[in-house]
Amino acid sequence: MKIAVCIKQVVTREWQVRVNDDKTWVRDADASWELNEPDAYALEEGLRLKEQHGGDVIVISAGPARATQVIREALARGADRAIHVEGDHLATADAFVVADALAAALKDEQIDLVLTGLQSDDQGFAQVGVVLAEKLHMAHSTIIMEVQVASDKLKVKRELEGGWFQWISMPLPAVLTIQSGINQLRYATLKGIMAAKKKEIRVVSASAASPSRQRILSIYVPEKSKQTRMITGTPSEAAKELVRALREDARVF
Predict the structure, then answer these.
(1) Domain map of the chain by residue range?
(2) Are strands 174-178 and 33-35 parallel, antiparallel or unpaired?
């Protein structure tokens, strides 16, 4: 089985966000970066399926040169080789542009299964996986909590709302978007880190970008503010005014 896992480099959660001068994204040069957490679960699921059924795990990332950091990390965890679709514009591209770039790099790989994280920690639109499936003309399913492979078919468990789950069968090849928490993540060993240095990373220049269908107009860091309000009157009057303020002004109930 040949499994492709799509990974993304995102800003670390602990980093204090600094907005760029255009107010359209973060200041790239000042940021700290890490592997997108939902993609880490997709990678782990791909590695487990390889251990059960054999085959190869190929990680693919679309982004600027700095994305090599998370590609090396994925190789150290156990992926066999990697594809880096390199382009500075991909750092802030929408799902359609990213899916185009990934699909172009995967079209000749004869992939059996493509795994992505459910969504990215930065934009969180949860669109790349499903758009990629359409680009590759593959069946797809989302919010996956369990994967079973039998011959040329899949049986997957989807997480629904309200604590409900859904089991569905689908053919291969397919694209699945993996929910965080599906498994227990492994971490790179010293042996894995050393081995990653010798593994292939095929660098592909991103083709001319297709027109974006989404555009970020402005981003900003929420301003923290607080206000102290004194309620006067008798205890009975103060209690009534407090209830009214909580209901009508603060709208907490």
Answers:
(1) 2-205
(2) unpaired
